[in-house]
Task: structure prediction
Amino acid sequence: MQVQHLEGKTFGSVITGVDLENLDNETWDRLYGQWIDRALLIFPSVFLSSEGQDEFALRFGGLEFPRTAISNIGKGEKIHHKVTDDVVKVLRGNEGWHHDSTYMPIQAKAAVFSAEIVPSSGGATGWVDLRDAYESLDKTTQEQVGGMQAYHSYYYSQGRDGYLPNERNEDGTYNYYGFHDHDVSLRPLVKEHPVTGKKNLIIGRHAHDIIGMTREESQVFLDELNEYACQEHRMYYHDWRPGDTVVWDNRCLMHRATSYDMTEQRRMWHTRIAGDALTESALNHQPV
Result:
């Protein structure tokens, strides 16, 4: 196994020389240790099978959902590309910085993501290190955000960006993942990683309405905090090739898609790893 850290970054490593579908215990222990430390592992051209991707993900924990296509390719190879198309709205929403499932009662722990079909240009995925973002705040601001809580909602993020689905159910929900009818999740702006103990920000496009602020005050504060966190030196963008696979720690990294010509095909595969209810539950969805 060869490990090459991303140059000049506080996170991310490229891993080669491993068979992810046939890992022995020693190799797995080394991989997991690297992942806890670096939060993002990149495996070039490994071409995981569908079963292999989910089995690899299961090593990190139970699944929030199994391997699912993130794609503009629909039934009968139809290409979804119009801005009014609900599939396109979901894909375009993903272009904002976010943590997965902070809008759910339990935030996702991690994700395994792989590339099958990539466009001729564009479509990179970016990650940003929110451990470094928190650590670089001055002490006064660290104390300030350490006492703050914000709601997280997919209704809010998609609505603010103009990407709510066209058809709404009678109960106010939509037939896409994340538009649930549970109480809106409330989360602290700062969390402690359950393994490393390091603190990081939990922000992104789903966060809104900080307790004790007006909606306008909260929106300005969160926008400025997101802008501060998402500076270029904290980011890495991966230009995909078919067969590439990554796994990232959703507890301390945010990520985003980038745009591409949606008249071209793009098909990625996403396996979402469930968070531990004891450490990733929203404040108002704590386990009994």
User: Anything to note?
Assistant: The chain has a mean pLDDT of 98. The chain has one domain: 2-276. Residues 165 and 181 are 16 Å apart (CA to CA).
